[in-house]
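This part of the workshop introduces the protein records we will be handling. The structure tokens are whole numbers drawn from a learned vocabulary of backbone shapes. The record below serves as our worked example for the rest of this section.

===
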Amino acid sequence: MSDSRSFVLGVYDDEDVLLKAVRTVREAGVKIDEVYSPFPVHGLDDELGYKKSRLPIAAFMFGALGTSLALTMQFWMLGVDWPMIIGGKNFTPMPDFVPVTFELTVLLAAFGMVFTFLVASDLKPWKDPKMLDLRITDDKHVMAIDLGKNKAVADSLSTILKDSGAVEVNDKEVED
């Protein structure tokens, strides 16, 4: 048995009106589920109350892992496992390790950030995306309000959205 969720969708034409509407709707005590936009809107994440991303911390950790793996690998290969004495030089010359260390640091940081983002965003190749309104990929901004998370009645939500500048207000039921 599949569960379904009911949404009230406010469709907006302009991103400035959308930003003011998000502020107005949140001040009215309504919990906004998500705002969909065809392009990034500066300041929208602040208005929605999103916390700062922790992706840079993951990038640093993966980069540190890449650095330590590169240095360990090179010290082991050239200094312990197969030392070669060439012209009386040191087994483990640090300046020669810099390019490989840099490249492995960047490689693991990049791959680690991609995989961390995909896991944190719950983006899977086999998952069907939830498309509430097809116009969000073209030219409209859509504010989605989950009726299950709000105590307000759908009629009062429609009034709040229309008063905040929504061009149209729709009801939508989505299967989980």
